[in-house]
Write the structure tokens for this entry.
Amino acid sequence: MYRFCTTFYYDEYIKYGLRCSAAWSGMKKNIWYNYCPSIVRNGIKERHKMKKNIFIYVFVISFFLILQNYSYGTVLVSTNFDDQSYSSPLEIAHIFGGSWAYDKLNNHGVNGYAIRGDHAEGDLIAMIDNLERYLEDGIYFRYWVKYSSEYYFPGELNQFENVKMLKFAGGDADIEFIYKNSANGGPHSLQLYWIKESTRSCCGGTGTSETDLFPGERTDYAGNKYLTKNIWHKIEIYIKVSDDGSADGNSMVHVQVDDSDVYINRDADFMLPASVYNDAQQFVSIHAHDSPPAGHGYWYLDDIIAVYNEGDLCDNEPGGQTDVESPSAPTGVNIMSIK
């Protein structure tokens, strides 16, 4: 009978578990309790319990592994301005007499508000307070920007082109991404450079040259090879500066415009540590030249996300503050990539 219990009833009990059906009645139940030694019954129960616990453990671990693949690092900023407010560490400031306001007519999406700036009145910057704290771990920015159809870039006025996508600086350190070649309707290219040493030697990145905003067959969301006015453009930037800034595989720059790779450098030679970039900390449009004429300086900003310590998210954009889907960007093959 002991053997009977450890074979037939072991299989039956494991099959039905602790949720015994109505079939477990009468003689079968009597045999189980009256003839199977308690040590056998307990052993079978413990083995069943162990299998059940192992299943639970595997499920929980798998759940957290899956969750990890879809989670992101620390979100510093996630705002769409729909409540006409924003919070630290995001700062929006006007300088040199500039101004800004919440705008409902030109928001990115179907409802809500955006920020409207006017470069004809001065300058407007968006920045992250204490940026230097995050650069060493890497920080990803995504925002949407639109320049009005009447907006004048400096190149359209035969002026030195100095509308910046980004500027980080402090002491002798300087990182700048500048829109260029805008004489024919809007910027066609981007200059990316950084001062590499305390002697202000120039330059890392593209140096004094530039790279196409939309290389190869790629275009912006309007189908043009330049930054078309009066439509929303998605800007994505990932930048990481190692503890000493050296080209040791730990510093990186990645820029995308309208889902098109503009520049990738996985071994950026900043040469200066993240801690020195404690002055200019601007990651959104800066018009650093003569102001355009009145009525030709309006531009709009919306749906900002900034995430740090989660790596390069340009190809794995996190969800966030937006209520429209991004249009699909045309495909292409040629990008400026520095390994």
